[in-house]
Design goal:
The chain has 123 residues and is mainly α. The chain has a single domain, classed as Up-down Bundle (Four Helix Bundle (Hemerythrin (Met), subunit A)). Helix content is 69%, strand content 0%. It is globular. It starts with a helix and ends in a 6-residue tail after the last helix.
């Protein structure tokens, strides 16, 4: 027996997380930052710009993933998610032009979180 054997059989302190839970946490964090930045937009518009950019990067990543031919999601769901990416890009521009509310974007993200939780997107 080598000195590494006890390490190999040691109990893991932190269980492995699923990709779904990591995705959930990431969307939740981005959503919280976007909500906070929207609430404080008058005092700190650059923070809103940063939060919108981060949200757009999130949706761009999701869109790239659902566009892959080997993505396991059903085709109609993939199409809906890609549409949401396009909508978030367009709506983010409207928010930056101060012609729209970021609340729609946080609502979309919250629906995603409900779906990831298995709530089926319902309220």
């Amino acid at each position: 027996m080598t000195y590494q054997s006890p390490i190999a059989y040691a109990r893991r302190e932190t269980p492995a997380r699923s990709l779904r839970s990591i995705e959930y946490d990431l969307i939740a964090q981005v959503t919280q930052r976007l909500r906070s930045a929207w609430a404080n937009r008058a005092a700190d518009f650059p923070a809103l710009v940063a939060a919108l950019t981060e949200n757009q990067q999130l949706w761009s990543t999701l869109a790239a993933d659902v566009a892959l031919p080997d993505n396991g999601l059903p085709a109609p769901l993939r199409a809906q998610l890609f549409y949401l990416y396009e909508f978030t890009a367009q709506h983010s521009r409207a928010v930056l032009d101060r012609g729209a509310s970021a609340e729609v974007l946080t609502d979309i993200n919250m629906a995603m979180l409900r779906g990831l939780r298995g709530d089926g997107g319902g309220r």
